[in-house]
Each structure stands twice: as C-alpha cells, then as structure tokens.
Amino acid sequence: xxxxxxxxxxxxxxxxxxxxxxxxxxxxxxxxxxxxxxxxxxxxxxxxxxxxxxxxxxxxxxxxxxxxxxxxxxxxxxxxxxxxxxxxxxxxxxxxxxxxxxxxxxxxxxxxxxxxxxxxxxxxxxxxxxxxxxxxxxxxxxxxxxxxxxxxxxxxxxxxxxxxxxxxxxxxxxxxxxxxxxxxxxxxxxxxxxxxxxxxxxxxxxxxxxxxxxxxxxxxxxxxxxxxxxxxxxxxxxxxxxxxxxxxxxxxxxxxxxxxxxxxxxxxxxxxxxxxxxxxxxxxxxxxxxxxxxxxxxxxxxxxxxxxxxxxxxxxxxxxxxxxxxxxxxxxxxxxxxxxxxxxxxxxxxxxxxxxxxxxxxxxxxxxxxxxxxxxxxxxxxxxxxxxxxxxxxxxxxxxxxxxxx
Length: 406
Prior knowledge:
The chain has helices at residues 9-13, 38-49, 66-69, 82-89, 91-114, 133-148, 158-165, 183-196, 305-310, 312-326, 371-386, 394-397; strands at residues 4-6, 27-34, 54-57, 73-74, 122-129, 154-157, 171-180, 200-203, 208-213, 218-222, 227-235, 251-260, 274-277, 284-287, 293-301, 334-344, 351-354, 361-365. It has two domains: 4-70 and 184-249 and 348-401, FAD/NAD(P)-binding domain (3-Layer(bba) Sandwich), CATH 3.50.50.60; 122-177 and 250-344, D-Amino Acid Oxidase, subunit A, domain 2 (D-Amino Acid Oxidase, Chain A, domain 2). The protein is 33% helix and 27% strand. By secondary structure, it is of the alpha+beta class. Helix 2 packs parallel to helix 11, helix 4 packs across helix 5 (91-114) and helix 5 crosses helix 11.
C-alpha cells in the first residue's frame, strides 16, 4: 500500500537511516516483529528489555512507512471524547483507556531516557477548542466527565481562552500533560540502539508473502522463498496488517498535513501547545524544534492513493487558510505538504493482543490519531503476554470486542 505522498517533514529533516539488509537465507529466532516504524521499535525495545532475542523485518527502508508521515503528537485524549466513549464501552473501561494513554506519555519519554537519545521530545500543554456552540456544549460535558475521573483538565471560557492563547473561540479544555517528538528519529534511534548491542537482527526490504502455523510457532515465508521459523510473531505493520487478519477491523482514511517555513520564535503561540478542535474532521497543529508550525486535518475516506494525492494541493491551501484565520498575525508560508493514510476503529481504540485461532501471533495495531501512545501500550501488553504475565489491559484493547470470523 502507498501509505503517504508529497514530502513528509521528518523525511526531509532527518538523514535517511541508511540500512539495506534484505534477508537472503533461512533463519530461526524466538520472536519476529513485522514492521520497523515507531510501533515495531517500541515492541523491540520492550522485548529486548525482557531479554528476548528478536528479529525486526520490513518490506521498506527502515521507518519509512506510516511513521514518516506522522505528526508525532502525544496526548492522553482519544479521538472519541470520554463522554462518548463512556456511552460506547461503559464508564470504567472508558476512564481506564484514557488513563492508560496518560501513563503512556511518561512511558514513551522513559524509553528514550533509558537509551540516552532525544528525538526532540518536548513536554507541552494541549488546548482542545470548541469549534461551535455544539462543541462548547460537548466540552462542558467532557470537562465534568474528566474531572470526575481525576484526569488533568481545566475549562477555559471564551475570555480565559483569549487571554491564555490569544485566539477567539467559544471555549477550550486545557491540560499540561501532553508531548511531541520526531517519531521517525525516535524509531530509528531505538532500533539502532538495540542493533548495536546485538539484541536484535534487522532486515529491511524483506516482504513476508505467506506464513504457516507450525507445532512450535510460525514459519514466515518471504517473497524470495526464504523462511523464518519462530515461536512468536508480532504484527506491527499498521494499516498493512490486514493480510494477517481474517476480518476487517478498521476503516481507512486519508489525512493531510503542511509545515511552514521556520519563523522567529517570538511568533509562536504560548508554550508551543498542541491545538486541536471538536469539529469532525478536526484541525490540529503543533510546532517543531526548529520553530516551524505543522498543521493537519481535512480527513476524508480513503478510496485510493491516486485520488488522495490529487487532492493534496487543494487540501494544503485549505489548511494554510484555516491556520491564518486562527492566527492572522503569525507569518505562515507552507514549505512542505504531504498526504497519508491512517485508520479509525468503531470505538476509537487500538487492537492489541492475539486474535482467536491465531495463538502466538500478537497484533500491535495502534489505530487512530493517538497511535504512538497506543503503540507504547501495545509493546507493554505484548511483552507481558509473551513472558506469560497477565495484563488487565488485554480485554480493553483486545479482539474480544469484535464478532469474530476465522
């Protein structure tokens, strides 16, 4: 699948992780991780920490799938507001999902502290803006639900928001627990760290074309006919994981993003906060370490890559126009634009763990706009499952909430 187009900012900013090492022989290992993006990297880190030798494989150059097109925001908020998630899955589970994401932000930061690498990780606040009167009503309900759940939140009315952020909107929810990073740099930092310590084997440009269940695990077969025998397989291939699943579990969407020329930091809004809104599809924005502004949104149903790519120029202009309406005094000139494919689930939650009748095949599918925090949760859950430990998050994020087909 063509996951993105245009010029994703992280690919322009960073030197390409220059690693070409396709598999050319039959091998055996304990665990294979399919996917070398931020999800696969976090899974590899957790497994290495647990002393499990593993192999990471990817059909592309390392880290150049969906990770390259991510806007790399870390929030405890899920795409579906807490009040709506409560109606879908119940209060206990909804609050638990939100709190898992809140903890995940700290856990991601600690991963990079442990390997002594900084992928431009920055702790920052978040403003969730009410786009209209109905959004204002939603935020009042959302504030009460989050406050009841002891989640970090403040309600700002129109005047407080104007004083705090300098923009005109109906109201906002504020918290100071979010973060942002360069997730392409993060993924390659993690993989390179464990590769140099001989804790993983890393094979790029290696496509798995088939697999068989064996007595002791799985046999993976590459397009060139080489075989990998393993006890466990972890599918961290994001939106391309469908060939390993017997049923559809998400809907594909197209999203669009732009990044500006660098500006003098005096122009940037307060505390470089993450900003997003209640409208669907929502507009979102962040800053970068070199004082650029990144803006994304304009999501629509994914039909095919050609149609998505044809819309990029128009969508980029719309995003810039929306930004300038919100911040008319900030000099924004688009430097790069790109389109990407992402997905959404019915309840806004990821799919993590084993699928029925697929023992020892673990899925780390952090679908939705909160993918990186979900990826951290997936890595921890899968690490526990492989080592035989119970994890009470399994039911919340697992496939048991689907009607299954084999």
